[in-house]
């Protein structure tokens, strides 16, 4: 089956077919070479395709490239789509194979906790970014559709971009990642996935069972979405705002008061990470509070979790440059994990400026 062979599913989920009047007209025009009609056809599906590619690849930048490549392949091969299944299923066929090509060409993306034990002492002068690792990145979640794709999906869309979930996915072979996402997140049937991947339903069910076992061993008992619901929106906002405020005021004690006893803090692409309140408190005093003169912050949402965009400057009156997106993992009414993704490009991806004047 070639990359552009159409899926033959009988997908009847709302919005997944092409039999509406406007959809039929755009499809006819797109086949005649009208790229604007093709853009209209795929526009409603772009956000979910992008999230899917991110889940498979662990990088929003890679997801950008994968979606662009997949849609280009689809545009060039549109004549191969005969309408026997849904346009949505066909686009997922192309996107899946595009992503699997990328996965086969490189190692999995990781977080510092995947690479070694936590540091016992704060690393300062010898700290340097690791360029030998493909690092997991944060995901702007503003465009995510709410709720599962079907009543049979096991994970909500926002659960399926949580950092713990996406990090765990990176430990699966590419085909198992795809099968699990298509079935448990997007609600495709085993028969549809088999057709999409050019394999059998038996193989799909076997891959799904293996993926679920491996994932269960790596996932926390409670998802962040459930935790956030239990905490409540008001407390979640206060925790994120409290972290941002403590950072801006260089108030180490206020920041430490927000953390659990077993808190972790990592800063990819730096390979070092810290676990436990004493080590994390020492890191906070020595680095963000001790070595960074001035902070400004913006509250955002990343991976379905509260997050803070951080800007650093030489003093309070000077311009501040984008520095990181710090994603917060909550437990109870405290912060149990912080991952500071260090790169101005992460900040601007959230629609924020590179510099605050």
TrEMBL record:
Residue span(s) of domain RNA polymerase sigma-70 region: 41-109
Q: Does the keyword Transcription apply?
A: yes
Domain RNA polymerase sigma factor 70 region 4 type, which positions?
A: 164-215
Write down the Pfam families for this protein, in alphabetical order. Sigma70_r2, Sigma70_r4_2, SnoaL_2
- Region span, Disordered: 1-30
> Where is this chain compositionally biased, Low complexity type?
7-24
Presence of the UniProt keyword Membrane in the record? no
Every copy of the SnoaL-like domain together lies at 242-336
Family matches, as SUPFAM superfamilies: NTF2-like, Sigma2 domain of RNA polymerase sigma factors, Sigma3 and sigma4 domains of RNA polymerase sigma factors
Gene3D superfamilies from the UniProt entry: 1.10.1740.10, 3.10.450.50, Winged helix-like DNA-binding domain superfamily/Winged helix DNA-binding domain
Keywords of the record, alphabetical order, are: Sigma factor, Transcription, Transcription regulation
Quaternary structure (record): Interacts transiently with the RNA polymerase catalytic core formed by RpoA, RpoB, RpoC and RpoZ (2 alpha, 1 beta, 1 beta' and 1 omega subunit) to form the RNA polymerase holoenzyme that can initiate transcription.
Q: Which family does it belong to?
A: Belongs to the sigma-70 factor family. ECF subfamily.
| NCBIfam families, per the entry | PRK08241.1, sigma70-ECF, SigX5
UniProt name for this protein: ECF RNA polymerase sigma factor SigG
Protein species of origin: Plantactinospora mayteni
Task: Write the gene name.
Answer: sigG
